[in-house]
Each structure stands twice: as structure tokens, then as C-alpha cells.
Amino acid sequence: MARLMSSTELYQRMETTEDFVLVDVLPNNQFNEEHIPGAINIPLEVLSEIAPTKLNKNQRIIVYGQSHDNEGSSRAAEILEALGYRKVSDFDGGIYAWKRAGYRTSKEAL
């Protein structure tokens, strides 16, 4: 089961340049409107097909969605773990919690 992560912990990991991949599992249009800086977009609907080509199984992967009420990130974590990824964390609260904590977002596509 994926470990839950808070916005403060995610921010601290970003500040220390820890090696991890931040994956936004929202649809492309929502990602293009706003996302956490440094995130890549792999929509939940295509995660199982795209993950093996984009993600390394030896790297920490942090997934996030829209909010705590949206189950996209927990589903994404389950999918990745079923594919054999062992270092998966679920950023609890998603972009909503990130913004509520006062952290900035990016609005351009990466």
C-alpha cells in the first residue's frame, strides 16, 4: 500500500532536490491549466499503458490528483504497485491541498 504524503513533506522533498518523479494523474487539459512545478502528466486512464515507458521502477514515484475527495491518486498508486513499482507515495490532498498550503503552481504545459 502506498504511503500517504502531506503537502509539507512534498515541498521539503522538492527543496532538497531528492530524486523522485512527481506524476499528475489528472486529464491533460487540467494539467495544462495548472499543476505542481516539476510534475509530469500521465492521466489515470492511460497510466497502466504509459508507466512502463516513462517511469523507472527503482525511482520514488509520487502521484497526485485533484483533491482528497478525488480517488485518482490512490487508484494510480494501486495501479503502479500492481505493475511492480515498489516506491510509490500518494500525495494526499492533491493540487487543492498544495495551493491551500500556499505553494505555487505552474500553468504551462511541461
Explain this structure to me?
- The protein is α/β, with parallel strands linked by helices.
- Helix content is 37%, strand content 17%.
- The longest helix has 11 residues, at 72-82.
- It has five helices and five strands.
- Strands 1-5-4-2-3 form a five-stranded parallel beta sheet.
Task: State the gist of this model.
37% of the residues lie in helices and 17% in strands. With 110 residues, it is an alpha/beta fold.
Describe the biggest sheet? 5 strands, parallel
Strand order of the largest sheet: 1-5-4-2-3
Span between termini: 29 Å
The outline comes out as globular
Average predicted confidence as pLDDT: 91
The helix tally amounts to 5
What is the chain-wise order of helices and strands?
EHEHEHEHEH
What's the total count of β strands?
5
Estimate percent helicity: 25-40%
Instruction: List segments where confidence is low: pLDDT < 50 over at least 5 consecutive residues.
Output: none
Query: Into which percentage range does the β-strand content fall?
Result: 15-25%
Compute the CA-based radius of gyration. 12 Å
